[in-house]
Design a protein that fits this description.
globular; about 350 residues; about 35% helix; alpha/beta
């Protein structure tokens, strides 16, 4: 398969896990439609409105530092080929490939639902995570502003918030995040996989350039917002050589902490990733997959808690050593960022103060 400009996946195969039909009744016509006039059909992004009954997702995973999160959107237009959230599109009978990055779902009722859930009797405050599945500041946020509405509710109620994003669009909400950070209520992680614009445009085709993300780190840090930089994922033989330089640039931009995660390939991500390698890095595809297997216990993916985030074996050990040395050299990870929970006020109480 050829790479599609400004898209990450090279495939759009259907998922076989939820009884999605593998063929179309009018397959002959579908096979021919892209050949009309010799010009392939341009893939457009579509957005479907979703009306969930609740908005806070809970988890009990022992290797993640939060127990609740919010996903303003399903699917992600950034098109990161390695995205571990891709398989979730199969629940909609959509492909984890191109469908995941072009057929999106937005939740415009998110702020209303959040206010309702925070107001429930007995709600126990703990940091809320945004961006743990799909990016809350992906391009459609510019128009839909679902994430903005969520942050407004959290700011109003003094609820602590962790944000993870690949987009410099996060600085648009600096008026809220800066005020929250001053109260010890907000921190932001900027994910930067590579400093090479060519590689970044291939791995994460619709995400902002690395320099724009580093600029966002500087803006947030100057405003007093604690900033992490996430080198996630590290891709063997493609981005691993950049670890030291990435940490240096992150420190220069004002980041306080950093972390990394070796590439993960759960479910349908693995065949998508292999096809992407064949299209963009055929000269090293075998080496990349062999190295991934060496840090995943001989498999393409390790689903086990803790090791799934860290990897195992000599190659993973070397990564950790290089990362620790670079962080120590550049003064990162000297402090643990802890958000306050004692300032939280239930939306019901906040509403009562207005009258």
């Amino acid at each position: 398969m050829k790479a599609r400009p400004a898209r990450g996946a090279t495939l759009n195969m259907e998922s076989r896990r939820f009884s999605l039909p593998q063929t179309e009744a009018d397959g002959d016509w579908l096979d021919a439609r892209d050949a009309i006039d010799g010009v392939p059909e341009r893939l457009r992004t579509t957005v479907t409105v979703e009306h969930p009954k609740t908005i806070i997702s809970r988890n009990a995973s022992p290797d993640v530092p939060f127990d609740r999160s919010i996903n303003p959107y399903r699917g992600c237009e950034h098109g990161c080929i390695y995205c571990f959230a891709r398989p979730s599109h199969a629940f909609h009978d959509l492909s984890p490939g191109l469908d995941f990055e072009s057929r999106l779902f937005a939740k415009p009722d998110a702020a209303t639902l959040l206010r309702r859930e925070l107001a429930r009797p007995g709600y126990a405050c703990a940091p809320m995570a945004l961006g743990t599945n799909t990016d809350p500041y992906q391009p459609i946020e510019a128009d839909w502003r679902v994430t903005r509405g969520i942050v407004e509710v959290l700011a109003e109620t003094n609820h602590p918030l962790f944000i993870t994003t690949k987009s410099d669009r996060v600085v648009r909400d600096l008026d809220l995040l800066g005020a929250m950070a001053a109260k010890g209520l907000a921190a932001v992680t900027l994910s930067i996989t590579s400093l090479d614009r060519r590689i970044a445009a291939t791995v994460e085709p619709r995400a902002p350039t690395p320099e724009r993300r580093l600029a966002a780190v500087r803006v947030l840090a100057d405003a007093g917002v604690p900033v992490y930089v996430s080198i996630a994922p590290v891709i063997p033989a493609i981005t691993d050589h950049e670890i030291e330089h990435l940490i240096e640039r992150a420190a220069e931009a004002g980041a306080r902490s950093a972390f990394f995660i070796p590439v993960r390939l759960p479910w349908e991500v693995a065949p998508l990733f292999r096809a992407w390698l064949d299209a963009h890095f055929p000269d090293r595809a075998a080496k990349v997959m062999a190295t991934i297997a060496s840090i995943r216990g001989g498999r393409e993916n390790d689903p086990d808690f803790f090791t799934r985030m860290q990897g195992s074996g000599p190659w993973a050990d070397l990564l950790r050593t290089r990362f620790r040395i670079a962080c120590r050299k550049h003064g990162l990870n000297r402090e643990r960022i802890v958000l306050r929970t004692d300032r939280f006020r239930s939306p019901a109480g906040v509403q009562g103060e207005l009258f």
